[in-house]
Design goal:
Blueprint lengths: L1 H8 L3 H22 L7 H10 L16 H17 L3 H12 L7 H18 L2 H13 L2 H18 L4 H5 L1 H4 L1 H14 L11 H13 L6 H4 L17 H18 L1 E3 L5 E3 L5 H32 L11 H18 L5 H21 L6 H8 L6 H8 L59
Antiparallel strand pairs: 1-2
Amino acid sequence: MSDIRHSLLRRDALSAAKEVLYHLDIYFSSQLQSAPLPIVDKGPVELLEEFVFQVPKERGAQPKRLNSLQELQLLEIMCNYFQEQTKDSVRQIIFSSLFSPQGNKADDSRMSLLGKLVSMAVAVCRIPVLECAASWLQRTPVVYCVRLARALVDDYCCLVPGSVQTLKQIFSASPRFCCQFITSVTALYDLSSDDLIPPLDLLEMIVNWILEDPRLILITFLNTPIAANLPIGFLELTPLTGLIRWCVKAPLAHKRKKKTPLANGQVTAKVPKDSGGAERDSRLLYSKLHLSVLQVLVMLQAHLTEKNLYGRLGLVLFDHMVPLVDEVNRLADELNPLNASQEIELALDRLAQALQVAMASGALLCTRDDLRTLCSRLPHNNLLQLVISGPVQQSPHTALPPGFYPHIHTPPLSYGAVPAHPAAHPALPTHPGHTFISGMTFPFRPIH
């Protein structure tokens, strides 16, 4: 690598960047012939940092800066390289070498250039770059994934009105990237503050994507070998948890956004000029999204069974439901004096439906006692109470056919005031057990 470095030092910035990609292409192509997963050592990464990200190797040296035209030319060189390289394994390892965070001072330059490269790939529909970015999102800590998501949202949903149409078109070009992008933006926009409510254009695009093909949000799960323990701090296999958070918190978050505290502690309503139409649009979009998420959860049961993961792998983690319930409870406490009973009821209804269907499909694995304890802190809601009570269970020692709750669920409390031993009260009829039959249509209407 030292000989390559000396030759690159004699070139201008753009020529050096192009040549380093050429040398590393040869290097990794050779490595891949002897090992299916070659280790990226320090040498190639240092060359990329010095000649692509312009981070000097010598201490105290001033970093070089490309002007805007040079940076655009560099992005074009990189886009063309990934488009012309026909071997996916070589593309992936070069992309990983370029943009995997190293925990050093080059990471800011690395992330900035990555955001611009993926944004350009969206604009000119460079599918190989989008596919590499999808893999990068899958194996990179979430703190970096949300930075890429924010760069794309800024470029296509905030800066130029109407540019979201360009982003919409990648749905058919790279569904895998779209799935990872949705997971990233649901991690970014958690509705914890008014600034973290997803923009309407972004919401509409994601809802339309999912309506067109609900399986989109399962692509990563369906095409990924499942490890015994999913790594902590990375994106989830599906955006289901994030989408459930959006649907449940949206009524409360938008109600909070319309209120602003005054100096004397009173509250007044904020009514933006275009709030009426935008609010109606967002309500309808969240309603459609909620129904789509429930339909995907039902669909998920068959896939879990096919992969022999039914009752063994939870794609909607109980540990992620705990903070969601805490946030809903906090928002309900904040908004209760503000006549937000309808919004609170809607949020709790959606939470109840999501919990019910997630448990029935095997996506959410938890005991009924855990669920009762978790939801006990929430305001009363009739539908939620039914979900907490749940259907009568069969013995956990018998075989579990698809359509029943996973065997790890504990038997629920009996309905109403019926005692646990009905024989002591023969006058009271017992209630029959109910099972969730996946082939049946939903016995409820979507909540609007």
